[in-house]
Amino acid sequence: MEENKHFTIDWTNCRLCPRECGADRTRGFGACKVGNTITAARAALHMWEEPCISGDEGSGAVFFSGCNLGCVYCQNREIALGHSGRTITQDRLCEIYMELQEKKANNINLVTAGHYLPIVIESIKRARKSGLTIPIVYNSSGYEKVEAIEALDGIVDIFLPDFKYISSEMAARYSNAPDYPEIAKRALAQMVKQTGDAKFDERDMMKRGVIVRHLILPGHIKESKEAIRYLYETYGDQIYISIMNQYTPMPGIEKRFKNLGRTITQKEYDEVVDYAIDLGVENGFIQEGETAKESFIPQFDDTGL
To answer: What does the entry list as the binding residues for [4Fe-4S] cluster (predicted)?
Structure first.
């Protein structure tokens, strides 16, 4: 057993995430496709986050292997399924944070770390005692228990969750998670409660706050509009909304989901962005150019581990 604040973890009967799979992760894998020892696939300066996260120097991104959501279109599928990565100790994880800080990273960006939550929390605490001073970013699918987010109070400075779906039907079809909308809504509410209003430094780098990402899927413009409407009507300018056009079809996806076999069109993207502007969204980010390219996806080759 490991305990942090209000959150207790039993690795032999894991109910860490909303899947509550009950797996014995000391002996095998949970719904997240990994056990109870940290596996990561990359730790390096990452230039492709929102401008206030990456800046000119880059975000210190640590890409963890495994994922509890398993979207059919995942562009990081190689690591999400646990097929790539190297097992590292908590000591090594602390060293990685410090190395990224020495490389002038603007923050430590924990990418899909929720299934290792107790270990990650302790690693941050230890690194701070060793001189880690840059903000901590929690980069998440949004499919998180409220208790997990509460356990990150005082640990995480910036939340960077997805808000993938507003409808249970789409969440069930593409992520086998019909409860995603309600789970993500509750998790986001807690994130906003813990961070309060966004704060930036003199270089316009975010020091505290919430940026919610929404990836537009081809042929699902109505879903995107409804998701953005919910976010803005619920939180207004208290959060930043990042509207993403980078959907990248993975090989063979069109055999199962024909509409997902293409990128979104400029017309589709413009329609969603115009809708957000008409709603009154001012605190937001949009993507320009052809971001849906292989080069946009990092190399998961154990760099920096």
So the answer is: 67, 71, 74
Rounded-to-integer distance, Cα 299 and Cα 18, Å: 29
Q: Is 94 annotated as a binding residue?
A: no
Determine the angle formed by the axes of helices 117-129 and 90-102, rounding to 10 degrees: 50
**What letter would DSSP give residue 235?**
H
77-133 residue pLDDT tens:
778 887 788 999 999 999 999 999 999 999 999 999 999 999 999 999 999 999 999
**Residue 67, marked binder:** yes
Contact of 135 with 158, CB cutoff 8 Å: yes
Spell out the residues 6+ positions from residue 179 whose beta carbon is closer than 8 angstroms to its own. Answer: 18, 168, 171
User: Domains of the chain by range and CATH?
Assistant: 38-296 (3.20.20.70)
74 is in an annotated binding site: yes
pTM for this prediction: 0.95
CA terminus-to-terminus distance, the chain: 27
Could you tell me the CA-to-CA distances from 160 to 90, 92, 208 in Å, in that order? 23, 24, 11
